[in-house]
Amino acid sequence: MCDHFFNFCITAHSLRDWIINLQMVERQSVHDRCNQVSELAACRDIANASKHFDLKVDRKPIAKGAVVSQSSVVDVFQDSSGNYRMSEPRETIDISLVMEGHTPSRITSVHKRCHRGLEDYFRGV
């Protein structure tokens, strides 16, 4: 799960370069718009820290860390007759992103906000 989130951050950040190259949009305007979405800015920090081992001193990172916890969950299934059945409880990992000035956000919320931020960008171009 942690690897998936890490890869998501790198991919979300690299989409900026694709936008710049494919649409021939001014580089800084793309970064400025993407950085307005806190979750995309946090993905930038995570991606850049992994690539460069640290962040530029002139840029204050928004990503402060992650909280990994375990939860007990059950899966719910519906059969073709409309009957529901539940699996046995199982343990799963949950990750929350800690960002400057924000309460920790579960990764599902981070994914949704990044996706919405990129969609809004494309609608506005």
Helix and strand composition category:
alpha+beta
The overall pLDDT average reads 85
How many extended strands?
5
- Describe the main β-sheet briefly: 3 strands, antiparallel
Distance N to C terminus: 33 Å
> Segments where pLDDT lies below 50 for 5+ residues?
none
Major beta sheet, strand line-up: 1-4-5
Domain module count: 1
Range of helix content: 40-55%
Q: What series of H and E elements makes up the topology? A: HHHEEEEEH
Strand content: 15-25%
Nearest-angstrom radius of gyration? 18 Å
DSSP helix count?
4
Provide a concise account of the structure shown.
The protein has 125 residues and is α+β, with helices and mostly antiparallel strands. Helix content is 51%, strand content 23%.
Could you characterize the architecture of this molecule?
The chain has helices at 2-23, 27-35, 38-52, 107-124, and strands at 63-73, 76-78, 84-86, 90-99, 105-106. The strands form two sheets. It has a three-stranded antiparallel β-sheet with strand order 1-4-5. Strand 4 (90-99) and strand 5 (105-106) form a beta hairpin. The chain is 51% helix and 23% strand. The longest helix is centred in the N-terminal third of the chain and has 22 residues, at 2-23. It has one domain (2-124). With 125 residues, the protein is of the alpha+beta class. Helix 1 (2-23) runs antiparallel to helix 2 and helix 1 (2-23) crosses helix 3. It has four helices and five strands.
